Amino acid sequence: APGDYAVGMVFLPRDAQTRAQSEAALERTVAAEGQVFLGWRDVPTDNRDLGATAARSEPVMRQVFIGRGDLPAADPLAFERKLFVIRRLAEKQLDGDAPCYIASLSCRTITYKGMLLAEQLRSYFPDLSDPLFDSAIALVHSRFSTNTFPAWKRAHPNRYLAHNGEINTIKGNVNAMRARQALFQSDAFGDDLPKVLPIIDEDGTDSAMFDNALEFLTLA
Fold first, then answer.
1. Whether the Cβ atoms of residue 154 and residue 205 lie closer than 8 Å to each other
2. 182: left (phi over 0), alpha (psi -120 to 50) or beta
3. What is the distance between the alpha carbons of residues 202 and 191, in angstroms, rounded to a whole number?
4. What global pTM score does this model have?
C-alpha cells in the first residue's frame, strides 16, 4: 500500500568493491533503525549523449527499496522522518570510507537528476518514458551552475527544493543553525534527533544548504 515502502535513488561509486561497501553500510543502517531492507534495482540509463566531463564522473545509479517497520500508524510523517534519519546516518558513515550520494530516500517522491542538459533527461533515464511509470505529479527543473562547479550530486532538484540563483545570506544562516543545534528539541524526532545532526551539509550549494534546513523543519 502507499506509504508501506520507500524508494531511494542512490549515486554509487564505479569501483565494484567500494560500491559493495556503500550498499552494505546502507543496508545495515536500515536494519539498525528497525526498517526492512527489500532489495536493490539497477536504474536503466543511456549515456550515449553525455559530454566528456559528465561521462568521466558518471556514477552507478541504483534504487534501494525499504519496507516500513513498526512505526506509529497515526503519524503520517513517521516513516518519512525515519527515512531521513537513515539517510543522515548513512551519509555520515559513508562520507569517507565508501562515498555515495543519496539523491532521495522517501515513501512519497523519487528524484531523477544528473549532470545533464534538459533535452538529455528523457533519453538518459528510460524510466521517464516507460508507460508503466506513473506519478500523481512531476516537477522538472533545469539550471546552469553559476557559483559552484557542476557535479552529478549538485544537480537540481534537491530533495525539497528546486531553485535558481544564489542565497546571499547563506553563510550567516549556516552559522546561526550550527550555533543553535545544541538547543534543538523535537517531540517528532524524539531520541532520533541527535542522529540527524548536523543539519547542514556545508559541502553543498547555497540551494542545497537551504534545502537541508527546509527538509528538517518540515519533518520536525
1. yes
2. alpha
3. 24
4. 0.92
For residue 154, give the C-alpha cell. Answer: 549538485
Do the Cβ atoms of 153 and 101 come closer than 8 Å?
yes
80-118, pLDDT tens digit by residue? Answer: 999 999 999 999 887 654 568 999 999 999 999 999 988
Q: Using an 8 Å Cβ cutoff, are 141 and 111 in contact?
A: no
Distances (CA, A) of 94 to 25, 91, 99, 171: 8, 5, 5, 25
- Report d(CA 112, CA 54) in Å as an integer: 16
CB-based contacts of 208, cutoff 8 Å, min separation 6 = 154, 158, 201
User: Which residue shows C-alpha cell 543553525?
Assistant: 177
Is residue 93 within 8 Å of residue 104, measured between CB atoms? Answer: no
